[in-house]
């Protein structure tokens, strides 16, 4: 039984499960919350304003029907 060789390291957003296998470390991470949900909670509060009219036109077309369309303001 090697289950006791696993260690869990925790930070604010992630659990890291690691073990030493010879001279190498093996592991994986488990996010505490869905990254997309976490990211868009933060991104929707960003204040991004684009003043360059040529760039505005390109971004409007490129970002149409994406979540970024709601975040970026054009002047």
TrEMBL record:
Q: What is this protein called?
A: Uncharacterized protein
Q: Which organism is it from?
A: candidate division TA06 bacterium
């Amino acid at each position: 039984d090697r289950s006791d060789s696993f260690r869990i390291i925790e930070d604010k957003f992630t659990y890291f499960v690691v073990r030493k296998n010879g001279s190498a470390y093996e592991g994986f991470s488990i996010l505490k919350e869905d990254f997309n949900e976490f990211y868009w909670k933060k991104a929707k509060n960003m204040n991004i304003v684009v003043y360059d009219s040529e760039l505005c036109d390109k971004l409007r077309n490129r970002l149409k029907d994406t979540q970024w369309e709601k975040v970026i303001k054009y002047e």
